[in-house]
Design a protein that fits this description.
25 strands; 11-stranded mixed beta sheet; 5-stranded mixed beta sheet; Rossmann fold; Translation Initiation Factor IF3; 14 helices; alpha+beta; single chain; BirA Bifunctional Protein, domain 2; 3 domains
Length: 478
Amino acid sequence: MAQRLASRGRDFSAWYNEIVQKAELADYSPVRGCMVIRPYGYELWEAVKGGLDRRFKETGHENAYFPLFIPMSFLERESEHVEGFSPQLAVVTHGGGKTLEEPLVVRPTSETIIGHMYAQWVQSYRDLPILINQWANVVRWELRTRLFLRTMEFLWQEGHTVHATYEEAEEETLNILGQYADFAANDAAIPVVVGRKSEAEKFPGALFSYSIEAMMGDKRALQAGTSHNLGQNFAKAFEVSYLDQNNEMQYCWGTSWGVSTRMVGAIIMVHGDDQGLRLPPVVAPIQVVIVPIHRGEEERRVVAESVTSLAAELKDSGVRVHIDDRAEYTPGWKFNDWEMRGVPLRLEVGPREVAGGQVASARRDAARKSGKKPLLRRGVVSEVKQLLSEIQQSLHDQALAFRDSHIHEPADYEEFKEIVQDGWAYAWWCGNPECEASIQEETKATSRNIPLDQEAGEEKCIHCGEKAVERAYFARAY
């Protein structure tokens, strides 16, 4: 299987498409631009979902669900919002064999329908804050699609909160941004840049938008999660107001934030290699695969007994383990198959290992030869857990080293143009949308975000030479 993969270095796009299908993560739907998420891919998404959901609940958020269909008039109440989403809307005009009195939009995002409900739920300052998240599907009519990264229908979570003050809303927005960055680094093993989006790149209708940005294996950027301070725009559009402690009516301050199935695509593109996937143990559907090796019935019986015992011990300790006892395939074929699927650790058990009180191990994060070592059967559970922890950290460190080696600070615009052809530029920028548009037209690079953690200073904009007080990351992006 692995030998039939396109080269990651020569054709990253073909490599990605092949790996998604050959590792049985997803497949193409008969509906253009949509995807079928296969069980292995969905388990990976469930790991993303589980890691984020736990963080949301630990910070006081609750899950709920809102309708898929939204009245068109709702979107039209917030002018920036409808203008930003109009080209991507899927609209239902007929139902039950009749023309609808009002067209219904298939959910592209839920700020409007949730704003409508919040207006009914909020009367007093005692009702605030409301901290709700929903796990749902959304539809956006994309012209160019790619499995997991950009599809017409995709899965995501979208959080929507309302608060009494701007300060509370901003604190919520940045808190969620931090939760996203924590998940990316510690669960997905993806280092990210945390920052504010430019005015041109912010969410339609938001006061401020923030994002986590990750570098993929081809050095392009991927917006892996966003968190928006909506200000009072949607509150005013939907009359979400409350009676404050001075008996005066005030509009609420809102936030919204989301991470989608494109996080699965990020995990593939950041960590994968020419042999296939390399999955971080925290999110891997299978953390350890055990391959029995034997000839003849007697060897099979002895090895099977040892393997069954080993798997039971690992499962009891919380390790996600699978035994590959398929008789129709050779051990070598299985090794390639599980490398393709990115299982972090492979254990091999044959008669020699049983007799010697050992288990052979092979790490997926390392080169084939250097990643192999024998483990003592006695105490193997603690050794396996240690190896999984090391693999998790190793994948993060490899991704961090790769990213940092391809971020450069240009001295002038000519150098800037060279850098963004094969990496990221970190440059002083004036913040002018016209300047930003010119950069994109000339280089195809966009501003990714303006990092929150940067030293104060004042220089000239890398493009126009005007005054600049902040630096931003620029890169070609998905």
